[in-house]
TrEMBL record:
Family annotation (PANTHER family): TRNA (GUANINE(37)-N1)-METHYLTRANSFERASE, TRNA METHYLTRANSFERASE
Pfam families: TRM5-TYW2_MTfase (PF02475), TYW2_N_2 (PF25133)
UniProt domain SAM-dependent methyltransferase TRM5/TYW2-type: residue ranges: 113-356
A GO biological process held by the record: tRNA N1-guanine methylation
Entry GO CC: cytoplasm
Domain of life assignment: Eukaryota
UniProt keyword list: Cytoplasm, Methyltransferase, S-adenosyl-L-methionine, Transferase, tRNA processing
GO molecular function terms attached to this record: tRNA methyltransferase activity
Organism whose genome encodes this protein: Spironucleus salmonicida
Protein name: Met-10+ protein
Length: 362
């Protein structure tokens, strides 16, 4: 059949119910199959439930190759034994996301996206925005129920502002990893790309520090839930949704008696300045330096781990040290790059010992 122009395709996607991918079912092409045992009717039946990889259908076939340019609509599966030629109609569910975009959309394919549970988040370029609904629907699968496109980040609680471009508006779900984390993606900030970073820092804190831990900007608890299983953790977040989810996540992870606060980070720190603290975590890079104001007058000697941003690719430690010196005096600051956030803006992890060398009489 004749394939619609990409503009028509996207308009059709936008006019349908946002989770309706039926328009793609009409976009079929012919697959040339060499087969010895698979009957056409079996293939047609398999189409209804198969994942989008043609190779999973056929036992005994070793490769998929694209035909010549003149027959670009035909994919050939090479057999491992003698075979019989069959013509089979294949619809969109047999295609990968890249294949769908290459075939049906006149735009650059998104090269990366973030997956969090059943949700996919895209950062679409201006050239991709006109085709956002078709791109979103192309990403839907049995595992993915919701596809969103980032707009910006809220100035208040740093949660994402986004647009639903495909799927169902279901933003509350629970991630089951080494800890269980319930998330409301619409109301809190969570970045699944930092999961390994969270694990590494939690392991480091458990190995190198002792005593009570203050998690100043805890979010939904990626640090607190990992640390709270074996250490006393007092966690805090200004976002009221995070506050409620911290309580729920403590319950999900069977952590009893965890103290959970709902305060401004500086105010939270000042409430514990006279207590004996072993480690302080500040996991909010946008306010990482500003929150150090809360350490004024702190009596305990403790390890401080914080995050911040810098546009200095080489001299970021000098820049950060200078900003900290305007607030408190510290020694032996250690900084390392975590990731390039965008256009040379780096997320930095910093660490120092507060009141190093001071005799702790608490």
């Amino acid at each position: 059949m004749e394939i619609p122009y990409s503009e028509e395709l996207n308009a059709l996607a936008a006019n349908l119910a946002i989770n309706d991918s039926s328009f793609l079912l009409k976009l079929e092409f012919t697959l040339t199959v060499h087969t010895t045992t698979v009957e056409t009717k079996q293939i047609q039946q398999f189409k209804k439930t198969a994942p989008p990889l043609i190779t999973t259908i056929f036992h005994g076939f070793k490769s998929i190759s694209k035909a010549s340019e003149s027959t670009s609509d035909i994919l050939t599966i090479a057999p491992t034994a003698s075979s019989t030629l069959k013509q089979v109609t294949i619809s969109h569910e047999f295609l990968t996301f890249d294949q769908k975009c290459q075939r049906f959309l006149n735009t650059q394919i998104p090269t990366s996206y973030e997956t969090t549970g059943p949700l996919i988040r895209l950062n679409l370029s201006p050239s991709q925005l006109p085709f956002k609904h078709a791109i979103g629907i192309a990403l839907l699968s049995k595992a993915t129920k919701t596809v969103i496109s980032k707009i910006d980040i809220s100035a208040v609680f740093r949660n994402l502002n986004f647009e639903l471009i495909a799927g169902v508006p279901e933003y509350v779900f629970t991630l089951n990893q080494d800890v269980r984390l319930k998330i409301d993606y619409e109301k809190v900030y969570f970045n699944s790309r930092l999961i390994e970073f969270h694990r590494e820092i939690a392991a480091k804190v458990l190995k190198t520090t002792t005593g009570t831990i203050l998690d100043v900007t805890a979010g939904v608890g990626p640090f607190s839930m990992r640390l709270g299983k074996t250490r006393k953790v007092i966690c805090n977040d200004l976002n009221p949704t995070c506050f409620e989810l911290l309580k729920e996540n403590a319950r999900l992870n069977k952590i009893e008696g965890m103290e959970i606060r709902n305060l401004n980070g500086i105010q939270f720190l000042q409430e514990y300045k006279d207590d004996k603290i072993g480690c302080i975590l500040m996991n909010l890079p946008e306010l990482g330096i500003e929150l150090l104001e809360g350490l004024r007058g702190f009596k305990s000697a403790c390890v401080v781990i914080f995050e911040c941003f810098s546009r200095q690719s080489d001299n970021f430690q000098v820049e950060i040290q200078g900003k900290i010196d305007e607030i408190i005096q510290i020694k032996d600051l250690k900084c390392e790059k975590v990731r390039d956030v965008s256009n040379g803006k780096w997320m930095i992890r910093g660490e120092f010992i507060l009141n190093e060398g001071k005799h702790d009489e608490l």
